[in-house]
Design goal:
This protein is of the alpha/beta class. It contains 12 helices and 13 strands. It has a 7-stranded mixed beta sheet, with helices on both faces. The protein has a 4-stranded antiparallel beta sheet with strand order 9-10-13-12, covered by helices on one side. Strand 5, helix 7 and strand 6 form a beta-alpha-beta unit. Helix 2 runs antiparallel to helix 9 and helix 3 runs parallel beside helix 9. The protein starts with 20 loop residues before the first helix and ends with a helix. The structure holds pyridoxal-5'-phosphate. Pyridoxal-5'-phosphate (PLP) binds next to helix 4.
Length: 366
């Protein structure tokens, strides 16, 4: 008998998200805890975005504008691309899924780094395609040279994440251009997906972005999201910027109403809220500087970062420290599932949250 689902479904492990605060507090019998675990915006959403979302609630009996005309226009003006080059998703997660659905079939290979965002692997496997992992560089960056070496005649897609979650490493312009040149020689039809969920936090001016290569020889798709800098993770809205023909292909299978009325309105308002963006960047950058200064005095190794989170190597299995932090009401992300059993990932919080983390961490380590 034909199996109920294709055999390759057996290989899909479900995505395990960080636990919500309420669940952890119940489990540990604590309250008033702080969450520095999911790279969310510490200051919250833009007030203008909240107002815009609230303002459209009276229209909830209507279907959304499936083409999201106003938001797509706003984005195209901000990015400097055509509206026909943008595809919106229910989070950039959904754009990843659509890319895999359109461009991958059974037996194809998609390259990605070790310990990368689990949605790449899930979306690739759901097509019966094969995720091929590339080890990180010694500095825990994305290894572009090693990626080129893994290309076979089955390779169809390469997922690059810059800044890289969970390490915070970026790709420099020159490195990326060398990579594209080598890739063009190997096979210019391989699709490069640049997941730039955290790129707005980058302070290094030499950071590459896929947006600069939209018109080049290679097929470069850039993914961005409203979940991090703009603080709208709960509304689920992100987008991809890609050559027009690719956008047209994705739009053929895109669920027609995949972004909601409040999400579209809030995203458009957030895009224009310069003050909220500036405040967020100030809090994140000041927070990083404070945390790195304070951690220098502790017997741990911090990895430098361009994102709103960073890795700490504890030099010992992190499970116990993670639990002790939890009991003090500080939630961070253990990195065992990413292949770093000795590491925790800390998302930058508000000033008082960062200070509370440092106090708790010091008590535990000394
Ligand atoms: C948070 C994150 C995203 C954003 O996902 P959304 O679906 O837009 O919320 C994408 N990629 C990576 C690596 C992330 O960490």
């Amino acid at each position: 008998m034909k199996p109920l689902v294709p055999k390759y479904f057996d290989a899909i492990a479900p995505y395990i998200p960080g636990k919500p605060i309420s669940e952890l507090e119940r489990e540990y019998g604590i309250s008033g805890s702080i969450k520095l675990a999911s790279n969310e915006n510490p200051i919250g959403p833009s007030k203008k975005a909240v107002q815009a979302a609230a303002g459209v609630l009276k229209d909830l009996h209507r279907y959304p504008d499936g083409a999201a005309h106003d938001l797509v226009l706003g984005l195209s003006q901000k990015i400097g691309c055509k509206t026909s080059e943008i595809v919106l998703g229910n989070g950039s997660d959904e754009v990843i899924e659509m890319l895999a659905q359109v461009f991958l079939s059974e037996g194809d290979e998609a390259l990605m780094s070790d310990s990368s965002f689990l949605m790449y692997e899930i979306s690739v496997r759901a097509q019966g395609a094969v995720p091929v992992k590339v080890a990180l560089s010694r500095e825990l960056g994305f290894d572009l040279d090693a990626t080129i070496k893994k290309i076979t005649d089955k390779t169809r897609m390469i997922f690059i994440n810059t800044p890289l979650n969970p390490t915070g490493a970026i790709i420099k312009k020159r490195e990326f251009e060398d990579f594209l040149e080598k890739l063009g020689k190997a096979d210019p039809r391989i699709i490069v997906v640049m997941d730039e969920a955290y790129i707005e936090f980058v302070r290094d001016t030499d950071c590459a972005t896929g947006l600069n290569y939209l018109k080049g020889e290679n097929i470069v798709v850039t993914l961005r999201t409203f979940s991090k800098l703009y603080g709208l993770a709960g509304l689920r809205i992100g987008y991809g910027v890609m050559p027009k023909y690719a956008a047209e292909l994705l739009n053929r299978i895109r669920p027609p109403f995949n972004t909601s009325i409040p999400a579209q309105a809030a995203a458009l308002a957030a895009l224009d809220d310069k003050e909220h963006v500036k405040n967020t960047l100030d809090v994140v950058h000041d927070g990083l500087d404070y945390l790195f200064g304070a951690l220098k005095e502790l017997p741990v190794t911090c990895y430098s970062t361009q994102a709103n989170f960073f890795l700490i190597d504890l030099g010992q299995n992190a499970g116990e420290v993670y639990e002790k932090l939890l009991r003090k009401g500080v939630i961070v992300r253990p990195m065992t599932s990413y292949g770093f059993p000795d590491f925790i990932r800390v998302s930058v919080g508000l000033k008082q949250e960062n200070e509370r983390f440092i106090r708790a961490f010091k008590e535990i380590l000394t």
